[in-house]
Design brief:
Leucine-rich Repeat Variant, single chain, mainly alpha, 33 helices, ARM-like, HEAT_type_2, 575 residues, globular
Length: 575
């Protein structure tokens, strides 16, 4: 896969296109094989988004869609964000336009992952005051969409900026978000979202999660926009549009920059320096009419718009004409729609009554278990629900979510390998600082999921999780290392000897490293796992451990081996 990715830099467009097609085949049929190379593959793919040839750009977009389906939102979005560090302005502009047109695809992940939302904010921030006009305009549009999807991380990142930078970014966003300054000041006082902002965010997320029609998907999601196509659109359409418009990527003349006062306040609005008939027309129409028109474009009634903050400029995150707050007795709702409703409520700072209603909805959904749905999208949506419940401390919702994940994975006829890594990561995140019932349910769900995976793949993702936690030094009661090690022990009981022998060179160094942990619970779980491996592999394991463990650690392992074998096989082990 890495060798194929290198051909993306070939001078001939047919070679580039062939490489993209091959990578698409890898992503569809062998996502696990492609996964280790994505860090090097994705930046090269993003560079081809600004290619002059339509077939190359289209293949890039199709590959990104495939990676999103196979490897998840985190992998794809991370690659797009990294591409914003590129030195070439055309690459940055193409990435921004792809990000804007795909916001509805990434909405669930962005809304449920505050750290990713903050990282995206920090990446877009310098582009909003860039010398290139097109980059400023696109980054402001992307920031507006980020604000609607994840207002809380947006405010948190904004409040950490120096005063001058805060003023500059607020001034840039003011034409699109007139209420930003007031809402940010309210958040700084209360550290809570206002009901209006929370309602708009939940409404937008629900709209993105609602399965669109085939025509809407073709028009809205993963939109392919190139320089030539955008140029034709601008020339043919005189009305206001949020679509990509070409840029010559040249700096503005010095006198224009000085006249605009751009650098005097460290960044003005991207729209403030725009001198077009379209802009003058909107200035004449007035701000009130402009904002009302923006809300009407989203299909939201004027009465509802008066209760919600006006956030203009959202082209891809549309709210549906119907309300996302569905009645509990609506039997026509699908599993996905009910989960969407619950997720929206969780993102809206639940009251106790709303929490009980959401929990009851979830229980009904768990009982129905719409097995006709594909497990991939359903499981990923439940994971978002689980993360929202963990952030709000709702143990009952966490347990119900875990049971629903467990049931969904059991009902799936297809292999769960592509989902295994994502599910494991999210379930492990639900264990720390949770009630025992939640932790036990999460561990049970992980174990059952691993039995559905390819054995080698299952042990591999456990080894990767253990390596990550060893590297970052999980300490205290919040450590998930004991859970991972116990899962390794359970998996070792079911694996054939030949498979374990192939895994030993990978897992033994990780276990020996975990045996140096400060927590007694971690050390005990590692010792018991080594005892189980000894039961499967015999004395050869002790020979391997002799060069990895200290004399005291090796003696401890031998003592436990003696205890578990009742002295029958332990006599030779102690010698």
């Amino acid at each position: 896969a890495d060798l194929i990715a290198e051909r993306l830099g070939d001078a001939h467009h047919k070679v580039q296109h062939a490489a993209l097609v091959l990578l698409d085949a890898f992503a569809e049929h062998m996502p696990a094989t492609l996964a280790p190379f994505l860090d090097s593959v994705l930046p090269r793919v993003m560079q081809r988004l600004c290619d002059k040839r339509e077939e190359v750009r289209s293949s890039c977009v199709l590959l990104l869609r495939r990676l999103h389906e196979s490897c998840g939102s985190q992998v794809t979005l991370t690659g797009m964000v990294r591409a914003l560090d590129a030195a070439q302005a055309p690459v940055k502009a193409a990435c921004l336009q792809q990000l804007i047109s795909s916001y509805s695809v990434f909405a669930p992940f962005i809304a449920s992952c505050p750290s990713q939302a903050r990282n995206l904010f920090l990446k877009l921030l310098p582009l909003s005051v860039d010398k290139v006009l097109e980059l400023r305009r696109s980054s402001v549009q992307a920031l507006v969409q980020l604000y609607v999807l994840a207002p809380l991380p947006f405010y948190e990142a904004l409040m950490k900026l120096p005063g001058e930078q805060q003023a500059a970014i607020k001034k840039s966003l003011l034409p699109s978000l007139p209420s930003l300054d007031r809402e940010a000041a309210a958040y700084a006082r209360t550290k809570k979202l206002s009901p209006e902002v929370a309602a708009v965010s939940a409404h937008a997320i629900s709209a993105c999660l609602t399965p669109p029609s085939k025509e809407a998907r073709e028009e809205g999601e993963w939109e392919i926009r190139g320089h030539a196509a955008a140029e034709e659109e601008v020339e043919g359409d005189s009305e206001e549009s949020q679509s990509y418009q070409p840029c010559n990527y040249e700096e503005e003349p010095e006198d224009e920059r000085r006249a605009s006062g751009k650098y005097s306040s460290e960044g003005l609005s991207a729209q403030a320096v725009e001198k077009t008939p379209r802009k003058r027309q909107h200035e004449e129409e007035g701000a009130d009419k402009e904002r009302a028109s923006a809300w009407e474009d989203r299909g939201i009634e004027n009465e509802e718009a008066n209760r919600q903050p006006r956030a203009r400029g959202i082209s891809q995150v549309h709210a549906p004409s119907c309300s996302p707050w569905r009645g509990e007795d609506d039997e026509s709702l699908t599993s996905r729609e009910r989960l969407t409703s619950i997720l929206s409520q969780l993102n809206s700072s639940l009251s106790a009554q709303d929490s009980e209603a959401s929990l009851e909805n979830l229980r009904r959904l768990a009982a129905l278990r719409n097995s006709g749905k594909k497990g991939g999208s359903l499981v990923q949506l439940i994971l978002l629900l689980l993360k929202g419940a963990a952030q709000t401390g709702m143990a009952e919702v966490q347990v119900a979510s875990l049971k629903l994940i467990d049931a969904s994975l059991q009902e799936e006829e297809e292999e769960v390998d592509p989902l295994a890594h994502v599910v494991l990561r999210e379930l492990l995140e639900s264990v720390p600082r949770s009630r025992r019932s939640v932790a036990a349910q999460a561990e049970e769900a992980i174990g059952r999921m691993l039995t559905r995976c390819n054995p080698e793949r299952g042990m591999g993702i456990l080894a990767q999780a253990l390596e990550e936690r060893n590297a970052r030094g999980d300490e205290g009661t919040a450590s998930t290392i004991p859970v991972i090690v116990r899962l390794m022990e359970k998996q070792a009981c079911t694996y054939p000897r030949a498979l374990l022998e192939r895994q030993v060179p990978i897992i033994l160094p990780l276990l020996s490293s975990a045996l140096n942990h400060s927590s007694a619970d971690v050390r005990k779980s590692v010792v018991m796992c080594l005892v189980e491996l000894h039961r499967q592999l015999g004395q050869g394991l002790l020979v391997e451990l002799d060069g990895m463990l200290t004399a005291a650690q090796l003696k401890l392992v031998r003592i436990y081996i003696t205890k578990t074998t009742g002295g029958a096989g332990g006599g030779t082990a102690v010698c």
